[in-house]
């Protein structure tokens, strides 16, 4: 894959009696986030993590550490890593498609992690046939294989010249929406309040463009780092004013007025809104290189 990225998994994609060699590459990364180390406030030195026995309070070296399952309060059965590895289904390195379904059939609450799925040099024709066939038929594929020492269900869909493979959460891992919303009272909004809400929605319709979304947390942390380096006053968080039930109609009216006023103002372009990452801003403030300790890079 271009850019020097290392494949997370290599194997075969099989549909019916056709198969081709493929590779999975991470589609999302947190390596550009600003990260911190734990520091001893008294000495300024970095703190190392040490595992302590809960009863003896003695340090436990790495070679003495193992896994355990709690069978009752304070009692554990020891499970060695070798036993866990032996219990995992054997991987044949085949991502086997079990069914083609309409994309709308999959609730995105089950989506876990996305990966780019690409062909190897010898399987390009079969890969392209599957990709284009799915596009024409307007379907996605459900496949299963062992990924990273665990049996996973994967949703595969066409994406540009390749495919996106998204691992799916199991049903037991997804909370029930009925339970999550069970304490919400039944409400029906009508009249002017509903009309104002619909007006605000209609005037703010747009298209999904991730390039226009800025990470406000990262930007705030970058500003904090910059202020600390330069010895300036630290930024203060603005309090959020929550609309009370009696003020809701007035708040909707004010929102509608502000939306109308904003329509007459020129919009910022995505390029201006995202000029320079938060990490780059923090680096410039420190006057240091990419390896500067003020802002550390995580391993991908």
Question: Would you give an account of this structure?
Answer:
- The chain has 300 residues and is of the alpha+beta class.
- Among the domains are: 9-31 and 88-172, Ku70, Chain: A, Domain 2; 191-237 and 245-286, no CATH class.
- The chain has helices at 81-87, 124-137, 177-180, 191-203, 216-230, 248-263, 270-273, 278-286, and strands at 9-15, 18-26, 67-72, 75-79, 94-101, 111-119, 140-147, 150-159, 162-168.
- The relative contact order is 0.13.
Keywords:
seven-stranded mixed beta barrel, 9 strands, 300 residues, two-stranded antiparallel ribbon, Ku70, Chain: A, Domain 2, alpha+beta
Percent helix, as a range, is 25-40%
CATH architectural designation of one domain: Beta Barrel
CATH class of one domain: Mainly Beta
Helix-strand category = alpha+beta
Count of DSSP E strands?
Answer: 9
**Sheet with most strands: strand arrangement:** 1-2-6-9-8-7-5
Please specify the SSE layout and strand pairing.
Layout lengths: L8 E7 L2 E9 L40 E6 L2 E5 L1 H7 L6 E8 L9 E9 L4 H14 L2 E8 L2 E10 L2 E7 L8 H4 L10 H13 L12 H15 L17 H16 L6 H4 L4 H9 L14
Parallel strand pairs: 1-5
Antiparallel strand pairs: 1-2, 2-6, 3-4, 5-7, 6-9, 7-8, 8-9
């Amino acid at each position: 894959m271009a850019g020097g990225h290392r494949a997370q998994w290599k194997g075969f994609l099989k549909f019916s009696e056709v198969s081709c060699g493929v590779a999975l590459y991470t589609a999302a990364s947190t390596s550009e986030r600003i990260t911190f180390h734990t520091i001893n406030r008294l000495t300024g030195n970095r703190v190392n993590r040490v595992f302590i026995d809960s009863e003896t309070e003695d340090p436990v070296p790495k070679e003495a550490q193992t896994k355990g399952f709690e069978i009752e309060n304070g009692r554990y059965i020891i499970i060695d890593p070798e036993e866990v590895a032996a219990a995992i289904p054997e991987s044949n390195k085949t991502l086997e498609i079990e069914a083609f379904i309409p994309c709308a059939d999959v609730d995105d609450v089950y989506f876990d992690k996305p990966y780019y799925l690409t062909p190897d040099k010898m399987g390009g024709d079969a890969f392209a046939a599957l990709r284009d066939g799915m596009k024409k038929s307007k379907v996605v594929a459900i496949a299963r294989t062992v990924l990273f020492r665990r049996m996973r269900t994967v949703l595969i869909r066409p994406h540009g010249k390749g495919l996106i493979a998204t691992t799916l959460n199991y049903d037991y891992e997804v909370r029930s929406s009925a339970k999550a919303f069970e304490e919400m009272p039944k409400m029906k909004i009508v009249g002017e309040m509903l009309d104002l809400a619909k007006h605000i929605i209609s005037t703010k319709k747009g298209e999904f463009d991730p390039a226009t979304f800025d990470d406000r947390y990262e930007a705030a942390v970058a500003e904090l780092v910059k202020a600390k380096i330069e010895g300036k006053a630290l930024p203060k968080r603005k309090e959020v004013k929550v609309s009370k039930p009696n003020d809701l109609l007035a708040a909707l009216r004010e929102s509608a007025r502000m939306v109308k006023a904003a329509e007459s103002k020129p919009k910022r372009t995505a390029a201006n809104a995202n000029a320079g990452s938060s990490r780059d801003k923090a680096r410039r403030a420190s006057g240091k290189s990419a390896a500067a300790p003020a802002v550390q890079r995580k391993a991908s």
